Amino acid sequence: MIRLNIAAITLCLLGALPMAVSAQSSGFGPEEGEGEFSISGTGSSDQDFEGGSLGLSGDLGWYLSDAMSAGIRQSVNYADIGGEGVTDDFWNGSTRGYVNHHFLTDRARPFLGASLGGVYGDGVKDSGFAGLETGIKYYVRQKTYLLARAEYQFLFSSTDEATDAFQDDAIWAYTIGMGYNF
Asked: Region Disordered: which residues (predicted)?
């Protein structure tokens, strides 16, 4: 009889485990209708620290569903090209809209998405770009997350150039930052 009671209690506890895990993990991340703000940075330098670049990116978005977000992203970059006898610096920026689909509902939420916008400034030819992106948000608190993102952007000046630009005139952009859902 004691073995039967222990077995019944064990089965009840094991049956309740998925509900406990689900209740615990559902406390992290956004819900439909909430907003998000994130700020990210990037940087690089040559081996002698004579030249380098710094960048800052800010996102403001809204959750169309628990898994789908859309918003606008602004990036600003500064580069100082240094070296022997060479000193030049320039600014550039980009503004784009984005849509991302988030997977999973736990603390770690990978995502895939797309963006469309423009790039402008001293160090680039003003043009449009479209891009694909992937990354991960890791929730360290209920509404606060760390962010890592990689974007593949292909540049074009007209719609005729867009098809060729996907392979011929593309760049990678990487950012690391943090964000908050509100």
From this structure: 25-46
**Is residue 43 a part of any domain in this protein?**
yes
Tokens found for residue 113: 């998405």
Mind listing the pLDDT tens digit for each residue in 148-157?
Answer: 999 998 888 7
Angstrom CA distances, 161 to 3, 92, 120, 128, 137, stand at: 74, 22, 17, 10, 33
Residue scoring higher pLDDT (53 or 83): 53
Question: Residues 17-45: what's their mean pLDDT?
Answer: 76
Q: Return the CATH number at 41.
A: 2.40.160.20
Greater model confidence, 20 or 87: 87
Q: Domain of residue 50: give its range.
A: 29-181
- Identify whether 1 is part of a domain: no
What's the whole-model pTM score? 0.74
Total number of domains constituting the chain? 1
Three-point CA angle 39, 100, 167, nearest 5°: 95
